[in-house]
Amino acid sequence: MDPRAFNDEDGSFRRHYNTVTSLTAAFLCLCSRAVLVTCDNCKRSFRGQTCYDNHLQSLCQKIRRCEECFKVVQSDRKQTCGEIYCKICRKHALADHLCYMQPDVGKPKSEDLLFCFYDLETRQEKQLEDGSYLHEPNLCVFKQCCDTCLNTTNQICKKCGVRLQVLRCNDPISRFMEFILGQRKIFKQVVVVAHNGQAFDHQFILNYILTATDLNPDLIMRGTKIIMMSLGNVKFLDSLNYFPLSLSKLPQAFGLGAGFKKGYLPYLFNTTANTNYVGPLPPVEYYDPDNMKEDDRIKFLEWYEQNKTNTFDMQKDLVAYCISDVEILTAACLKFRQQMIETGNVCPFTEACTIASTCNKVYRRNFLQPNTIGIIPKGGYRWRDNQSKVAIQWLVWMEKEQNINIVCTAKQQEARVAGVKVDGYCAETNQVFEFHGCYYHGCPACFKNGRDEPLRDDPTQTLNTRYEATVAKTERLRDLGHHLIQIWECEFRRQLQQNAFCSYVENHPLLVNAPLNPRDAFFGGRTGNTYEYYKCMDGEKIKYVDVCSLYPWVCKYGKFPTGHPKVYVGEECPPTINNVEGLIKCKILPPQNLYHPILPAKMNNKLMFVLCRTCGEKMNQGKCHHHTEEERALTGTWVIDEVKKALEMGYRMLKVHEVWSYEIDQFDKATKKGGLFTAMMNRFVAVKQQASGWPQHCRTDEEKNRYIEEFLEREDVKLEFAEIVENPGLRSLAKLILNSFWGKLGQRENQPKTAIVRTPAEFFNMLSNPAICVTAALPVNEDVLIVNYEHRDESYDPLTTVNVTIAAYVTTQARLKLYSYLEKLGDRVLYYDTDSVIYVSREGEWDVPTGSCLGEMTDELEGYGAGSHIKEFVSGGPKNYAYKFFAAKDNEEKVTCKVKGISLNYAASQLVNFDTIKEMILSPTEPVYITSKNIRRTKEHEVVTREETKIYKPLSTKRCFLDDHSSYPYGHKRCRTE
């Protein structure tokens, strides 16, 4: 910026003091830098008499600088040093205070609300250069429901107009958007819903916005999928994010009745040439039956055979099919919404965008007690006062270079000089060390633009006010007689790249033993195969059991941390963890004789359970030659309960780096009190059980009352006699809430974001914005960019709905529950997956007991009749297995096959099935190539069908597998020789 732009006619610089937020000119002022004039009133310093005189005319009355903390504040506001406005707590508090998740006091609103449910049908005739076919909508059907007609069946509403509308033309998207944008002027909020809209329907909307309008939507994306898109008061949502079921399954799941049933459409027949076709049903291949699941294909072929002589009218039947889909979607969503409001006092569509966020709000609105769940600070508890890793690197190097001891927070010692917090201090030499993080201190070299813009993490501050406070603080320290040593972050990072001390600081104990990161303790479910192939011998059966409602059981009966932890580091850590609850970062040595290791570790992009770290990292299928503790030991962060179990099973603790010790809340079965999530689980367990109706054996009132008493005794949940009525929709809702509730607690913070940019100025502002980092920019056309960006670590706000420690407790207790069965079954286990076990049952040996209560094992094959069992099992790795089983009810042999990453439709199942997997394992052959046509999204948000080929090959790499297809964990002393 040219300083002359601020000159008045008389050559002064009065204008740059006209407003509180316009401080740029103060730093561009051409007054002498050598002479500073301090104002006794506002305590700020100026670079000459002219600037000082000018500021008296306006700025002095508006802002001042605090003499104690150097912060620039508005003069008419009360200033408390060290205090900020906390967005989480929604009040002023000390800058280093600890926050808590806040109860939600809102309620769902229906006033001036419009829902619009829509579906598209597309042609795919236009072939692109890469051989894919572009989808082009030629039909849009939508149904609207407003606060006036929400619960009626009227075809015309006085407020929103014709409710069901059909747009049949070559460009239905523009007409649909014209209608939606018109409705947003009538209603305060418009919610537009499509099933699988994130991957299909909404893509056409976004592409239209990008190429045919000047609108700038707010986007929440996952890759190219649209989780939510907002245009002012219009919100586009995907019902699939609330109930992950295909549209054809919604009528049964929500009990919509026989009138709602998804039909069949020859969508490949939807071409320009066939627009006015009337005649027999199109040939069967236009329905693409080979892309259906095998059972669905059989049903379709039966339907086709029965209806092949019927007349097919392309215009009429296409519209009827689309209307049917919209009616199903509308009925399911409105029923889901009504039941969610009645049971949880939350509207899922206006107050959330996924089932996880909906359930989290239900908990916060109905069950969360104040000051219960702590919000973990951005940098954890040790480095939460903005002293970053790079700052510690500099202080460590200063210690070595000057051979002194520097007091700093990385050593758990707060450094203060004359009441002012500093980064480091050496009392013996009277040296003060200040590391200026470029963003926190407003580096004028790194951030030359937007210096007067309010900062995202603290709108009361700008880069200029931060820089001014930094200068004032350093001058104060010098005035007090301290020897000040300071450096800017950008300068030190350059030194790190150029100097040899980089290796020293990286390997210093303070840096190697970086603060515990609670997300490192958040592992998923335990999944893997211990056998590649097993066939029952005489006296054996293979059983398949899974835990009934594993995660709801954990949430109801499990233990959970509350509040904020006490942090212990190094020698401060408790000598034993027997009576400690929380998280631990440690180095631990596994035994060499454990068939099922306990502690999880992330290696090779997999969740592994190993006895030797080096073997696991190298996926060594040979003999373990690693004998030293350093080669075999694991260093990681875990929930302490998992480490306690590991020590019980022979693991040996080598070193404890850090412990977060929490107070614990758990349901007490004796007193019926406690439990962080017990009340919520109980409510929806009751809803689910009541909506399941009466069991078949309950015919008389006496039997029904006995059933209620027994359920109360088993689950500590009181069922209401009059509420026990079969209701599939309510049961589905309760099941969704029970299983989806805890996920939001573990959500990753500071996720990538997407913006639509239409002018060079907008793009420049993003590039120069100190709070964000642009990661990618994709040109859509000459006028539009799609820009991906992230907030810098210093500027993002912690999510008010997240506590990853609690999420880690959920998955840990789930793994320990599964392990309680693995431990007893030993090498009889063939396969396990989160909440299920496939194992060999032999007469005279312990069998897994089954039941029907929360946390009890159930028989997965029970639906095929008592006595059903697996006879032959094969597995090509985690989530990759097949088995032949005897179905007692039908008295016949059946086959099940599941392979993650491959949609086993009819065509694919001819290539990948029990027999092919078995053959590939018993006599290794070439991989199988599966070619299919799939609907995909482009970066420009066009939808195409392209031919893709996947390669299938069994791959069991989580354990060391032997020639007989059994296995041992990596590092086990019985692993085979090479």
UniProtKB/TrEMBL annotation:
<feature type="domain" description="DNA-directed DNA polymerase family B mitochondria/virus">
    <location>
        <begin position="519"/>
        <end position="690"/>
    </location>
</feature>
<dbReference type="GO" id="GO:0003677">
    <property type="term" value="F:DNA binding"/>
</dbReference>
<dbReference type="InterPro" id="IPR023211">
    <property type="entry name" value="DNA_pol_palm_dom_sf"/>
</dbReference>
<dbReference type="GO" id="GO:0042575">
    <property type="term" value="C:DNA polymerase complex"/>
</dbReference>
<protein>
    <recommendedName>
        <fullName>DNA-directed DNA polymerase</fullName>
        <ecNumber>2.7.7.7</ecNumber>
    </recommendedName>
</protein>
<dbReference type="InterPro" id="IPR012337">
    <property type="entry name" value="RNaseH-like_sf"/>
</dbReference>
<dbReference type="InterPro" id="IPR036397">
    <property type="entry name" value="RNaseH_sf"/>
</dbReference>
<dbReference type="Pfam" id="PF03175">
    <property type="entry name" value="DNA_pol_B_2"/>
</dbReference>
<comment type="similarity">
    <text>Belongs to the DNA polymerase type-B family.</text>
</comment>
<keyword id="KW-0239">DNA-directed DNA polymerase</keyword>
<dbReference type="InterPro" id="IPR004868">
    <property type="entry name" value="DNA-dir_DNA_pol_B_mt/vir"/>
</dbReference>
<keyword id="KW-0548">Nucleotidyltransferase</keyword>
<keyword id="KW-0808">Transferase</keyword>
<dbReference type="GO" id="GO:0006260">
    <property type="term" value="P:DNA replication"/>
</dbReference>
<keyword id="KW-0238">DNA-binding</keyword>
<dbReference type="GO" id="GO:0000166">
    <property type="term" value="F:nucleotide binding"/>
</dbReference>
<keyword id="KW-0235">DNA replication</keyword>
<feature type="domain" description="DNA-directed DNA polymerase family B mitochondria/virus">
    <location>
        <begin position="189"/>
        <end position="371"/>
    </location>
</feature>
<dbReference type="InterPro" id="IPR043502">
    <property type="entry name" value="DNA/RNA_pol_sf"/>
</dbReference>
<dbReference type="GO" id="GO:0003887">
    <property type="term" value="F:DNA-directed DNA polymerase activity"/>
</dbReference>
